[in-house]
From TrEMBL:
It comes from the Eukaryota. Pfam families: PIG-P. Keywords: Membrane, Transmembrane, Transmembrane helix. Its main location: membrane. The chain crosses the membrane at residues 47-66, 86-108. It is found in: Membrane. It is a multi-pass membrane protein. This is PIG-P domain-containing protein. Residues 45-163 form the PIG-P domain. The keyword Transmembrane applies.
Length: 164
């Protein structure tokens, strides 16, 4: 006899009512909504992002006004205390030099931390994660931007791509 996926039917209505009493009755939408606190429809980080955007735009406009308007125009607006105009060029130049230094420092640190070809760190054993890319038909070397899957690259493939 084939079993039904439905629960077993009870012999009497009294047993069915007793079984149904074990489970809570479904709540109405109004009752279930009253139990929970309302959730904000817009996440608060969107408000913070908008405020940061508006403040940065206002600061940029103030910077442009300070950098380009002559002293007489600023004094006519009642602005008498402001930094020297030297800083209008010096600060952006320093920021640009700092970003360039960080990029070059990152490249230099990566080159310094790369082991030489004769290092024991380049030895491959059975724990290495080598995907079958040893012959790769030149895809990773010939195609600009060819990116192999994540894993250890065999030194032979690296030498082939770099030196041929």
């Amino acid at each position: 006899m084939r079993s039904s996926p439905l629960p077993l039917l009870k012999e009497s209505a009294a047993e069915s009512v007793a079984m149904a009493a074990q489970y809570p009755a479904p709540m109405s939408v109004e009752a279930s909504a009253a139990e929970y606190e309302p959730i904000a429809k817009t996440p608060t980080f969107e408000y913070y992002g908008f405020v940061v955007y508006m403040v940065s735009m206002a600061a940029f406009v103030v910077y442009l006004v300070w950098a380009y308007l002559p002293d007489s125009a600023l004094e006519a607006m009642g602005i008498t205390y402001y930094p020297d105009r030297y800083w209008a060029l010096a600060l952006p130049a320093w920021w640009l030099a700092t970003v360039g230094f960080i990029l070059l420092f990152n490249i230099a640190t990566n080159m310094y931390n790369t082991p030489p070809l004769s290092s024991i760190d380049n030895i491959t054993d059975h724990f290495s994660n080598l995907d079958d890319i040893t012959d790769a038909n030149g895809f990773y070397c010939d195609q600009v931007g060819g990116i192999p899957p994540i894993g250890d690259l065999p030194i032979a493939l690296v030498n082939k791509c770099v030196y041929h």
